[in-house]
Design goal:
The protein has about 300 residues and is mainly alpha-helical. The protein is built from 10 helices and 4 strands; from the N terminus they run ααααααααβαββαβ. β2 (about 275) and β3 form a beta hairpin.
Length: about 300
């Protein structure tokens, strides 16, 4: 079986300057997210933070590839870590929607039962993550046939992630429209800025979705395709979009939907909220809204 040709790992010489800039940007953003996560004690944001450090490792691999274009190890590092980092961002995004539903006591407006919502999306995300990782591992052998197989596996993982994101956005929009049309008592609390967080979810989801579509087109084009022959697309359609995702999430962190205790959330879910004469949903869960969630 034929091996990859000499100097064939890249179709160009990776820019050292661009890689260093990316390393600095993602390192700063990752440290910022670490600070925000620790300060707010929102551990469900841990996958997002880890994803930022994955980006740093990936671009370190690209920086090392500048002086050694034939190093399979650095090539796999940059390819794999940059590829899977958005899947970690997605895991936190999925969990945030479930928390918004619980915080507003509007679980009945979800297309998918809220107890299953996060589990299904995160499970799909894990499968996508592992699939892309397996594809990257397949490429690590350096064998031409295995590299092609790895590319096909990665495409499958990216397609799965796109489908999951599309479904997530659909569920989010329907939930948003239903709750705006018939708000719950909890949803009108001034300190629960759930609508702003929904806009943030749409923004970061759109950024990741565009990035994933780009990566699918890139891999479908193959190693000799136009997107892999030049370097600028990976920075414009991946690095910039993922940095923007981290900036948006870091500024509008999901602190308004943090429960004081999970027991209060579980107690709130025991009652089925019903609309009153004014069109506002109330019930056993609604009465504790103001005291259950803090800024």
């Amino acid at each position: 079986m034929a091996k990859i040709e000499e100097n064939g790992l890249y179709r160009y010489t990776p820019s050292l300057v661009a890689a260093i800039i990316a390393i600095i940007v993602f390192a700063i953003l990752s440290l910022f997210h670490t600070y925000r996560m620790i300060k707010s004690k929102l551990l469900f944001c841990l996958p997002f933070t880890i994803g930022g450090y994955f980006e740093v490792i990936g671009y370190i691999g690209r920086a090392l590839g500048h002086s050694n274009r034939t190093s399979l190890g650095t090539f796999v590092i940059q390819s794999l870590f940059i590829l899977v980092a958005p899947a970690l961002f997605a895991a936190t995004i999925y969990m945030t929607l479930g928390r918004i539903m619980r915080a507003t006591h509007a679980e009945i407006y979800s297309l998918i039962r809220v107890n299953w919502l996060t589990k299904l999306f995160v499970l799909g995300d894990i499968i996508s993550f592992c699939t892309q990782g397996a594809g990257g591992g397949q490429q690590a052998s350096g064998d031409a046939e295995n590299v092609k197989t790895g590319e096909n596996i990665i495409i499958g993982g990216l397609f799965l992630q796109i489908v999951i994101f599309a479904l997530f956005i659909l569920v989010s929009i329907i939930f948003h429209k239903r709750l705006r049309k018939q708000p719950t008592q909890a949803s009108v609390a001034e300190d629960l800025k759930w609508q702003k967080m929904m806009v943030v979810l749409y923004a970061v989801s759109a950024l990741i979705l565009v990035r994933n579509i780009f990566r699918v087109v890139e891999y479908i084009g193959g190693r000799d395709g136009p997107l892999l022959r030049v370097e600028w697309p990976i920075y414009v359609f991946d690095a910039v979009l993922m940095a923007a995702t981290m900036v948006v999430w870091g500024i509008w962190y999901p602190t308004p939907i943090r429960p004081k205790t999970m027991s209060q959330v579980n107690d709130a879910e025991e009652g089925m909220p019903l609309p009153n004469a004014n069109g506002m949903v109330q019930g056993p869960a609604a009465g504790v809204a103001a005291n259950t969630y803090e800024k």
